[in-house]
């Protein structure tokens, strides 16, 4: 697996002038409503002993809420779909029959069934859900990232949280989101912060424009079903020095390089610290513990089987190991771009290819975090760029039905906490709105889940 060390650049004056405002936007509110200022205050209050971490599991394409966590079994056939609900360990909560392991662990997670925004377009939704901002930036281009885009949550975390050793505060894996046409999806990068604050991308999965899903066991094509390709590999990072390289000489050369680089210190500072990429690479080379955090194929067979020996399982296993090693935020793109875009053949593709590896891997992650005592300090969030339409439809070119895009409603799940409150901090109590069917703040705030960032 290769690290994507993108060459930093000095951002334009326009980007510099608006950077502070962008940071103040507090986009991390999407991941539980905890802004950077609040996080720093909590750490100071707690003496820095407890480090809060986030694993953000992103399902590109749009998870169908009617087929997963918000089923409508009593609705007409063209709304309810083919799947049936099953009970969970939580009284009154029922989810899809094809998510049995998550149903057994419902005490470990909570649902928000009324998350919404105003876009039904993939690129818009990606930017909204990866930056935490519902307004599109000036000059937004759906076809490519721009330095005027809002910074991603991962970029903000990487820029504002302290680094622990060689590992950065935030990482994205196992790949960037790139459309099958080759265009890079906006919203993943540093944007207004500048390219030097792009998050680190761990490219474990190579770009695959042909198929989707948890290869090699569950790779598929939306129209054609199972792919069965054997040329896709989940590449773990290989950072060993060649046997012919003496490590003492390697360190000496690094010292000389740093001395020479000192002559360009003022340029480094002007560009925002280009050194961080090089320092991380050196740290990875010289620290076996750090290397082990990226090694999923070397983990014992039983653990790999619990997660699933596929791209979904290995990605979440790596995320757990990185959080254990001190990474504060890991974004896991569970499937390449638009894997969950079930316009056609939705029911067989979800049943056979998408739900089984997801149910298995997320359940194993929750088990390991709970057993290690990390679940109380790790926020696990699962979300998409939008939900899918209430009514089932069939594309003109398709034979089997699915659902279209629907920004008006989607489900997001997260590690269970005792209570919800509006992020503006006014009330801890909530009520059920009879008019909208949404939870809203009881008194002074009045914001519903459509606009309020939530925290526990």
Write the layout of secondary structure elements.
Elements (H helix, E strand, L loop, with lengths): L1 E2 L9 H12 L11 H10 L7 E7 L17 H4 L4 E3 L6 E3 L3 H5 L4 E7 L6 H10 L21 H8 L9 E4 L26 E4 L8 E3 L3 E4 L3 E2 L20 H15 L3 H6 L4 H12 L1 H7 L6 H7 L3 H14 L4 E5 L12 H26 L6 E7 L2 E2 L16 E2 L3 E6 L5 E2 L7 E3 L6 E3 L12 E2 L1
Parallel strand pairs: 2-11, 2-12, 6-7, 6-11
Antiparallel strand pairs: 1-7, 3-4, 5-15, 8-9, 9-10, 12-15, 13-14, 16-19, 17-18
Helix pairs in contact: 11-12, 12-13
The assigned structural class equals alpha+beta
- The best one-word shape is globular
Count of structural domains: 1
The proportion of residues forming helix, as a percent range, comes to 25-40%
Q: Strand order within the widest sheet?
A: 1-7-6-11-2-12-15-5
> Total number of β-strand segments?
19
- Oligomeric state as shown: single chain
- What does the main sheet amount to? 8 strands, mixed
In round numbers, the mean pLDDT is 78
């Amino acid at each position: 697996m290769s690290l994507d060390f993108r060459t930093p650049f000095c951002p334009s004056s326009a980007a510099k002038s608006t950077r502070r405002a962008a940071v103040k936007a507090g986009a991390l509110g999407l991941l539980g409503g905890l802004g950077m200022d609040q996080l720093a205050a909590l750490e100071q209050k707690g003496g820095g002993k407890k480090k809060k971490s986030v694993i953000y599991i992103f399902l590109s394409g749009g998870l169908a809420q009617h087929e997963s966590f918000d089923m409508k079994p009593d609705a007409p056939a063209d709304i309810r779909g083919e799947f049936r609900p099953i009970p969970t360990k939580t009284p009154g909560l029922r989810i899809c029959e094809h998510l049995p392991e998550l149903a057994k662990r419902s005490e470990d997670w909570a649902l928000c069934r009324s998350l919404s925004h105003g876009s039904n377009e993939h690129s818009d939704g990606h930017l909204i859900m990866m930056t935490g901002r519902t307004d599109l930036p000036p000059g937004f281009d759906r076809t490519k990232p721009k330095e005027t885009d809002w910074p991603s949550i991962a970029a903000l975390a990487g820029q504002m949280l302290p680094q622990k050793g060689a590992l950065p505060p935030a990482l994205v894996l196992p790949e960037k989101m790139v459309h099958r046409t080759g265009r890079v999806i906006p919203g993943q990068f540093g944007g207004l912060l500048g390219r030097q604050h792009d998050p680190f991308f761990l490219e474990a999965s190579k770009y695959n424009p042909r198929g989707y899903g948890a290869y090699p066991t569950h790779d598929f094509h939306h129209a054609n079903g199972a792919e069965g390709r054997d040329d896709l590999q989940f590449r773990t990072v290989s950072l060993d020095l060649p046997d012919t390289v003496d490590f003492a000489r390697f360190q000496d050369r690094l010292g000389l390089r740093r001395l020479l680089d000192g002559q360009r210190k003022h340029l480094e500072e002007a560009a925002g610290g280009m050194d961080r990429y090089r320092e991380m690479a050196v740290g990875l080379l010289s620290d076996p513990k750090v290397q082990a955090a990226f090694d999923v194929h070397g983990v014992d067979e039983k653990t790999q089987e619990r997660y699933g020996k596929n791209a979904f399982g290995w990605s979440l296993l790596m995320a757990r190991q990185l959080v254990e090693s001190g990474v504060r935020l890991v974004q896991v793109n569970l499937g390449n771009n638009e894997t969950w875009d079930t316009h056609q053949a939705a029911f067989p593709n979800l049943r056979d290819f998408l739900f089984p590896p997801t149910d298995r891997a997320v359940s194993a992650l929750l088990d390991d975090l709970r057993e290690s005592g990390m679940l109380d300090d790790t926020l696990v969030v699962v979300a998409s760029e939008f939900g899918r339409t209430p009514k089932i439809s069939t594309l003109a070119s398709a034979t089997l039905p699915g659902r279209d895009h629907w920004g008006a409603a989607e489900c997001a799940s997260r590690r269970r906490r005792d209570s919800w409150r509006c992020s503006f901090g006014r009330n801890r109590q909530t009520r059920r709105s009879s008019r909208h069917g949404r939870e809203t703040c009881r008194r002074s705030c009045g914001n519903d889940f459509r606009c309020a960032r939530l925290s526990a």
